Amino acid sequence: MPALYIGHGAPMLLDDPIWSSELATVAKDLRRPKAILIVSAHWESAPITLSNVAANAPLVYDFYGFDQKYYEMTYNSPEASALAQKVAALMPKNEPIHQSNRGLDHGAWVPLKIMYPDADIPVLQMSMPTSNPYLLMELGKRLQPLRDEGVLIIGSGFMTHGLPYIRDWRMDAAAPTWSSDFDQWAAEAMATGNIDELANFKSNAPGMPYAHPTVEHFTPLFITLGTAVTPDKAPETLIEGYFLGLSKRSILVA
Questions:
Q1: Under a CB-based contact definition with an 8 Å cutoff, are residues 3 and 153 in contact?
Q2: Cα–Cα distance measured from residue 37 to residue 109, given in angstroms and rounded to the nearest whole number
Q3: DSSP β-ladder status, 151-157 and 3-7
Q4: What is the residue extent of each domain of the chain?
Q5: Are strands 236-239 and 250-253 parallel, antiparallel or unpaired?
Q6: Which of 23, 53, 162, 219 is the most exposed place for a label (fewest CB within 10 A)?
Q7: Strand pairing partners for 253?
Q8: Strand ranges, E, within the chain
Q9: Quick count: other Cβ atoms within 10 Å of Cβ 246?
């Protein structure tokens, strides 16, 4: 299986026909995964912790002020204990994996409701234990063997996420310069395989700190990049463009 970095969107992504269609097409073009491991921007926790493995685990509605319908949505995926065991086996003996009863947050279930609406594939969420790009890439490399077993690994974030600086809240709003400049910088760095440039985004990227006043929506990218089987091959862009003026660029890593 390949690995993905996707923009997960707010719950209202589910009402955006353009982006929803793009995500659905991404899933359609992939081989059907046997299981899904997803790392979301909305769960930062160390040591590494895994989500509830039970079938029909409850969701986390970690957002405020939205229509009531979003708080009533479900995603009743199958038991994921087998995947949890595989993830734990890939970790060093001195870095034990913790298990929790936490459900999937919206960085996981919102895009998955579009990509795999039947909820018939086991899904496990893993916490993001650090914001250090190089350590996240090492973690991705540990997870790489799961790809050979048919596991789809997804880093779920947003290529730009300057919510405090948005002034136009229309879905089709024009991208602010800080968003478009950062997006194009990231696209070029990925195309040329310049990992060090990406890792030093805080100091090197145009549009900072407006594009990422906090970094958790960008850093899942490094887990995805770390899973690469052929690190010299540039990621494939699956989705580009903007939502609320924020870059929804999503990539596939071979």
A1: yes
A2: 12
A3: parallel
A4: 3-253
A5: antiparallel
A6: 53
A7: 3
A8: 3-7, 35-40, 49-50, 98-99, 123-125, 151-157, 236-239, 242-243, 246-247, 250-253
A9: 25
Distance of alpha carbon 87 from alpha carbon 50, whole angstroms = 9
Residue pointed to by tokens 């690469």: 228
The token pair at 155 is 């880093």
Full-model pTM:
0.96
**What's the token pair of residue 22?**
């793009």
Angstrom distance (rounded) from CA 109 to CA 181: 29
pLDDT in tens, the chain (254 residues): 999 999 998 898 899 999 999 999 999 999 999 999 999 999 999 999 999 999 999 999 999 889 999 999 999 999 999 999 999 999 998 888 999 999 999 999 999 999 999 999 999 999 999 999 999 999 999 999 999 999 999 999 999 999 999 999 998 999 999 999 999 999 999 999 999 999 999 999 999 999 999 999 999 999 999 999 887 789 999 999 999 999 999 999 99
